[in-house]
Amino acid sequence: GQLALAHVVSLLLVSLIYAWNTRAQWVLAINTAVDRKAQSQMIHYAIPLMGSGIAFFWLVTIDRFFLRYMSSFDELGIYAIAVNFSGVALVLQMIFTTIWIPTIYKWSSEGVDSKRINNVVDYVSLVVVVLWSLVGIFSWVISYILPPEYGQMHLIVMTTMTYPLLLALSEATGVGIGIKRKTTYALTASLLALAVNVVSNYLLIPVYGAAGAAIASSIAFMVFFIIKTEVSAKLWVDFKRMKMYLLITASLFFSILINIQNIPTFITSAIWFLLLIIGLFSYPAQVKEVYHLLVRRVPNLQ
What percent of the chain lies above the pLDDT cut of 90? Predict the structure, then answer.
Protein backbone atom coordinates (compact mmCIF):
# COMPACT_ATOMS: atom_id res chain seq x y z
CA GLY A 1 0.00 0.00 0.00
CA GLN A 2 2.79 2.42 0.88
CA LEU A 3 4.61 1.56 -2.36
CA ALA A 4 1.46 2.27 -4.40
CA LEU A 5 0.95 5.55 -2.52
CA ALA A 6 4.54 6.59 -3.19
CA HIS A 7 4.07 5.80 -6.88
CA VAL A 8 0.89 7.90 -7.07
CA VAL A 9 2.54 10.81 -5.25
CA SER A 10 5.54 10.71 -7.60
CA LEU A 11 3.27 10.76 -10.67
CA LEU A 12 1.30 13.66 -9.19
CA LEU A 13 4.47 15.67 -8.49
CA VAL A 14 5.78 15.05 -12.02
CA SER A 15 2.43 16.16 -13.47
CA LEU A 16 2.44 19.36 -11.41
CA ILE A 17 6.02 20.17 -12.44
CA TYR A 18 5.22 19.66 -16.12
CA ALA A 19 2.03 21.70 -15.78
CA TRP A 20 4.07 24.58 -14.31
CA ASN A 21 6.76 24.34 -16.98
CA THR A 22 4.13 24.49 -19.75
CA ARG A 23 1.96 27.18 -18.13
CA ALA A 24 2.44 29.56 -21.07
CA GLN A 25 1.00 27.00 -23.48
CA TRP A 26 -1.91 26.32 -21.08
CA VAL A 27 -2.81 30.03 -20.93
CA LEU A 28 -2.57 30.31 -24.73
CA ALA A 29 -4.79 27.26 -25.20
CA ILE A 30 -7.42 28.51 -22.75
CA ASN A 31 -7.66 31.88 -24.49
CA THR A 32 -7.83 30.38 -28.01
CA ALA A 33 -11.20 29.96 -29.72
CA VAL A 34 -12.33 26.35 -30.17
CA ASP A 35 -12.77 25.05 -33.71
CA ARG A 36 -15.89 22.91 -33.22
CA LYS A 37 -15.51 21.12 -36.56
CA ALA A 38 -11.90 20.16 -35.90
CA GLN A 39 -12.82 19.21 -32.34
CA SER A 40 -15.55 16.89 -33.60
CA GLN A 41 -13.13 15.27 -36.06
CA MET A 42 -10.57 14.70 -33.32
CA ILE A 43 -13.18 13.17 -31.00
CA HIS A 44 -14.35 10.76 -33.70
CA TYR A 45 -10.71 9.89 -34.35
CA ALA A 46 -9.79 9.44 -30.69
CA ILE A 47 -12.76 7.54 -29.22
CA PRO A 48 -12.04 4.27 -31.11
CA LEU A 49 -8.38 4.60 -30.11
CA MET A 50 -9.41 4.85 -26.47
CA GLY A 51 -11.42 1.66 -26.82
CA SER A 52 -8.57 0.04 -28.69
CA GLY A 53 -6.17 0.99 -25.90
CA ILE A 54 -8.40 -0.62 -23.27
CA ALA A 55 -8.86 -3.77 -25.37
CA PHE A 56 -5.11 -3.91 -26.04
CA PHE A 57 -4.38 -3.67 -22.31
CA TRP A 58 -6.52 -6.76 -21.70
CA LEU A 59 -5.01 -8.45 -24.74
CA VAL A 60 -1.53 -8.35 -23.16
CA THR A 61 -2.62 -9.13 -19.58
CA ILE A 62 -5.56 -11.53 -19.78
CA ASP A 63 -3.25 -14.56 -19.98
CA ARG A 64 -1.94 -13.85 -16.45
CA PHE A 65 -5.49 -13.87 -15.08
CA PHE A 66 -6.26 -17.19 -16.74
CA LEU A 67 -3.00 -18.68 -15.46
CA ARG A 68 -3.75 -17.43 -11.96
CA TYR A 69 -7.17 -19.06 -11.78
CA MET A 70 -6.78 -22.07 -14.08
CA SER A 71 -3.23 -23.16 -13.27
CA SER A 72 -0.64 -22.86 -10.49
CA PHE A 73 1.56 -20.07 -9.19
CA ASP A 74 4.56 -22.02 -10.46
CA GLU A 75 3.23 -21.85 -14.02
CA LEU A 76 2.44 -18.15 -13.57
CA GLY A 77 6.01 -17.51 -12.38
CA ILE A 78 7.50 -19.40 -15.32
CA TYR A 79 5.36 -17.44 -17.75
CA ALA A 80 6.23 -14.09 -16.15
CA ILE A 81 9.97 -14.82 -16.43
CA ALA A 82 9.57 -15.91 -20.06
CA VAL A 83 7.82 -12.61 -20.83
CA ASN A 84 10.67 -10.73 -19.14
CA PHE A 85 13.20 -12.52 -21.35
CA SER A 86 11.31 -11.35 -24.44
CA GLY A 87 11.26 -7.80 -23.05
CA VAL A 88 14.43 -7.00 -24.99
CA ALA A 89 12.45 -7.29 -28.21
CA LEU A 90 9.79 -5.03 -26.69
CA VAL A 91 12.40 -2.30 -26.15
CA LEU A 92 13.43 -2.58 -29.80
CA GLN A 93 9.76 -2.36 -30.80
CA MET A 94 9.31 0.84 -28.79
CA ILE A 95 12.41 2.40 -30.37
CA PHE A 96 11.19 1.52 -33.86
CA THR A 97 7.68 2.88 -33.20
CA THR A 98 9.08 6.14 -31.82
CA ILE A 99 11.09 6.69 -35.02
CA TRP A 100 8.67 5.19 -37.54
CA ILE A 101 5.37 6.91 -36.71
CA PRO A 102 6.48 10.55 -37.19
CA THR A 103 8.55 9.55 -40.22
CA ILE A 104 5.68 7.88 -42.05
CA TYR A 105 3.31 10.76 -41.33
CA LYS A 106 5.90 13.11 -42.81
CA TRP A 107 6.18 10.90 -45.90
CA SER A 108 2.41 10.86 -46.20
CA SER A 109 2.21 14.65 -46.15
CA GLU A 110 4.86 14.82 -48.87
CA GLY A 111 3.24 12.16 -51.05
CA VAL A 112 4.25 8.64 -50.16
CA ASP A 113 5.90 6.26 -52.65
CA SER A 114 4.54 2.70 -52.44
CA LYS A 115 8.00 1.27 -53.20
CA ARG A 116 9.38 3.17 -50.22
CA ILE A 117 6.74 1.69 -47.93
CA ASN A 118 7.29 -1.80 -49.32
CA ASN A 119 11.03 -1.46 -48.68
CA VAL A 120 10.49 -0.48 -45.04
CA VAL A 121 8.07 -3.38 -44.52
CA ASP A 122 10.62 -5.76 -46.06
CA TYR A 123 13.35 -4.46 -43.74
CA VAL A 124 11.17 -4.85 -40.64
CA SER A 125 10.07 -8.32 -41.77
CA LEU A 126 13.71 -9.31 -42.26
CA VAL A 127 14.67 -8.04 -38.79
CA VAL A 128 11.73 -9.86 -37.18
CA VAL A 129 12.60 -13.18 -38.87
CA VAL A 130 16.32 -12.83 -38.07
CA LEU A 131 15.72 -11.98 -34.40
CA TRP A 132 13.15 -14.74 -34.00
CA SER A 133 15.48 -17.28 -35.61
CA LEU A 134 18.55 -16.21 -33.60
CA VAL A 135 16.63 -16.49 -30.34
CA GLY A 136 15.44 -19.91 -31.45
CA ILE A 137 18.96 -21.07 -32.32
CA PHE A 138 20.43 -20.01 -28.98
CA SER A 139 17.41 -20.36 -26.68
CA TRP A 140 18.91 -23.53 -25.17
CA VAL A 141 21.40 -21.30 -23.32
CA ILE A 142 18.55 -20.26 -21.00
CA SER A 143 18.47 -23.82 -19.64
CA TYR A 144 22.00 -23.32 -18.28
CA ILE A 145 21.19 -19.94 -16.72
CA LEU A 146 18.04 -20.84 -14.79
CA PRO A 147 17.44 -23.64 -12.23
CA PRO A 148 16.21 -27.06 -13.48
CA GLU A 149 12.59 -26.34 -12.51
CA TYR A 150 12.51 -23.76 -15.32
CA GLY A 151 13.48 -26.38 -17.91
CA GLN A 152 10.69 -25.47 -20.36
CA MET A 153 11.52 -21.77 -20.26
CA HIS A 154 13.62 -21.75 -23.43
CA LEU A 155 10.64 -23.14 -25.36
CA ILE A 156 8.06 -20.73 -23.94
CA VAL A 157 10.29 -17.77 -24.79
CA MET A 158 9.87 -18.56 -28.48
CA THR A 159 6.12 -17.90 -28.26
CA THR A 160 6.34 -14.91 -25.90
CA MET A 161 8.61 -13.31 -28.52
CA THR A 162 5.55 -13.11 -30.79
CA TYR A 163 4.04 -10.14 -28.94
CA PRO A 164 6.84 -7.57 -29.35
CA LEU A 165 7.95 -8.78 -32.79
CA LEU A 166 4.50 -8.83 -34.39
CA LEU A 167 3.59 -5.59 -32.64
CA ALA A 168 6.59 -3.89 -34.27
CA LEU A 169 5.72 -5.41 -37.64
CA SER A 170 2.06 -4.35 -37.32
CA GLU A 171 3.22 -0.78 -36.66
CA ALA A 172 4.98 -0.86 -40.03
CA THR A 173 2.23 -2.61 -41.98
CA GLY A 174 -0.85 -1.15 -40.26
CA VAL A 175 0.06 2.53 -40.19
CA GLY A 176 -2.41 3.26 -42.99
CA ILE A 177 -5.29 2.93 -40.50
CA GLY A 178 -4.09 6.01 -38.65
CA ILE A 179 -3.18 7.96 -41.78
CA LYS A 180 -6.65 7.39 -43.26
CA ARG A 181 -8.24 8.16 -39.85
CA LYS A 182 -10.14 4.85 -39.86
CA THR A 183 -9.40 4.13 -36.20
CA THR A 184 -12.51 1.96 -35.86
CA TYR A 185 -10.50 -0.77 -37.58
CA ALA A 186 -7.82 -0.53 -34.89
CA LEU A 187 -10.54 -1.10 -32.30
CA THR A 188 -11.87 -4.05 -34.32
CA ALA A 189 -8.40 -5.63 -34.54
CA SER A 190 -7.87 -5.33 -30.78
CA LEU A 191 -11.32 -6.70 -29.89
CA LEU A 192 -11.08 -9.69 -32.23
CA ALA A 193 -7.55 -10.50 -31.04
CA LEU A 194 -8.76 -10.23 -27.43
CA ALA A 195 -11.64 -12.61 -28.15
CA VAL A 196 -9.23 -15.12 -29.72
CA ASN A 197 -6.91 -14.76 -26.72
CA VAL A 198 -9.70 -15.42 -24.22
CA VAL A 199 -10.96 -18.53 -26.02
CA SER A 200 -7.44 -19.86 -26.63
CA ASN A 201 -6.37 -19.35 -23.01
CA TYR A 202 -9.49 -21.10 -21.77
CA LEU A 203 -8.80 -24.12 -24.00
CA LEU A 204 -5.00 -24.35 -23.80
CA ILE A 205 -4.01 -23.46 -20.24
CA PRO A 206 -5.64 -26.54 -18.62
CA VAL A 207 -3.65 -28.73 -21.02
CA TYR A 208 -0.29 -26.94 -21.41
CA GLY A 209 -0.10 -24.50 -18.48
CA ALA A 210 2.31 -21.61 -19.08
CA ALA A 211 3.07 -22.87 -22.57
CA GLY A 212 -0.66 -22.77 -23.33
CA ALA A 213 -0.88 -19.13 -22.25
CA ALA A 214 2.10 -18.26 -24.45
CA ILE A 215 0.59 -20.11 -27.42
CA ALA A 216 -2.77 -18.39 -26.94
CA SER A 217 -1.13 -14.97 -26.82
CA SER A 218 0.95 -15.68 -29.93
CA ILE A 219 -2.11 -16.77 -31.92
CA ALA A 220 -4.02 -13.67 -30.78
CA PHE A 221 -1.23 -11.35 -31.88
CA MET A 222 -1.05 -13.09 -35.23
CA VAL A 223 -4.75 -12.28 -35.68
CA PHE A 224 -4.10 -8.69 -34.56
CA PHE A 225 -1.21 -8.34 -37.02
CA ILE A 226 -3.08 -9.80 -40.00
CA ILE A 227 -6.19 -7.65 -39.49
CA LYS A 228 -4.20 -4.42 -39.22
CA THR A 229 -2.04 -5.34 -42.20
CA GLU A 230 -4.90 -6.29 -44.50
CA VAL A 231 -7.04 -3.27 -43.57
CA SER A 232 -4.11 -0.88 -44.03
CA ALA A 233 -3.28 -2.42 -47.43
CA LYS A 234 -6.88 -1.93 -48.57
CA LEU A 235 -7.21 1.62 -47.21
CA TRP A 236 -3.80 3.01 -48.09
CA VAL A 237 -0.82 1.40 -49.87
CA ASP A 238 -1.30 -2.09 -51.28
CA PHE A 239 2.21 -3.40 -50.53
CA LYS A 240 3.45 -6.95 -51.15
CA ARG A 241 2.94 -9.20 -48.14
CA MET A 242 2.67 -12.87 -49.16
CA LYS A 243 6.37 -13.57 -48.54
CA MET A 244 6.12 -11.86 -45.16
CA TYR A 245 3.08 -13.93 -44.21
CA LEU A 246 4.78 -17.20 -45.15
CA LEU A 247 7.90 -16.47 -43.09
CA ILE A 248 5.99 -15.21 -40.05
CA THR A 249 3.55 -18.13 -40.18
CA ALA A 250 6.44 -20.62 -40.40
CA SER A 251 8.16 -19.00 -37.40
CA LEU A 252 4.95 -18.96 -35.37
CA PHE A 253 4.04 -22.53 -36.31
CA PHE A 254 7.40 -23.89 -35.23
CA SER A 255 7.37 -21.81 -32.02
CA ILE A 256 4.06 -23.46 -31.12
CA LEU A 257 5.13 -26.93 -32.28
CA ILE A 258 8.19 -27.10 -30.02
CA ASN A 259 5.96 -26.30 -27.02
CA ILE A 260 3.54 -29.17 -27.65
CA GLN A 261 5.93 -31.78 -29.08
CA ASN A 262 9.11 -33.16 -27.57
CA ILE A 263 11.72 -32.23 -30.19
CA PRO A 264 15.47 -32.68 -29.47
CA THR A 265 17.37 -29.44 -28.94
CA PHE A 266 19.81 -29.96 -31.82
CA ILE A 267 16.92 -30.50 -34.26
CA THR A 268 15.19 -27.38 -32.93
CA SER A 269 18.32 -25.27 -33.44
CA ALA A 270 18.83 -26.75 -36.92
CA ILE A 271 15.29 -25.86 -37.99
CA TRP A 272 15.65 -22.32 -36.67
CA PHE A 273 18.94 -22.03 -38.55
CA LEU A 274 17.15 -23.17 -41.71
CA LEU A 275 14.45 -20.54 -41.17
CA LEU A 276 17.19 -17.93 -40.71
CA ILE A 277 18.81 -18.87 -44.03
CA ILE A 278 15.44 -18.86 -45.81
CA GLY A 279 14.69 -15.43 -44.34
CA LEU A 280 18.01 -14.00 -45.50
CA PHE A 281 17.59 -15.38 -49.02
CA SER A 282 14.01 -14.06 -49.15
CA TYR A 283 15.20 -10.46 -48.89
CA PRO A 284 18.39 -10.32 -50.99
CA ALA A 285 18.20 -6.60 -51.74
CA GLN A 286 17.90 -5.66 -48.07
CA VAL A 287 20.64 -8.10 -47.00
CA LYS A 288 22.95 -6.77 -49.71
CA GLU A 289 22.31 -3.18 -48.67
CA VAL A 290 23.01 -3.96 -45.02
CA TYR A 291 26.20 -5.78 -45.98
CA HIS A 292 27.49 -2.83 -48.04
CA LEU A 293 26.63 -0.48 -45.17
CA LEU A 294 28.65 -2.63 -42.77
CA VAL A 295 31.56 -2.81 -45.22
CA ARG A 296 31.69 0.99 -45.41
CA ARG A 297 31.55 1.28 -41.62
CA VAL A 298 33.92 -1.62 -40.82
CA PRO A 299 36.73 -1.82 -43.45
CA ASN A 300 38.01 -5.16 -42.06
CA LEU A 301 34.89 -6.86 -43.44
CA GLN A 302 36.14 -6.33 -46.99
Answer: 46
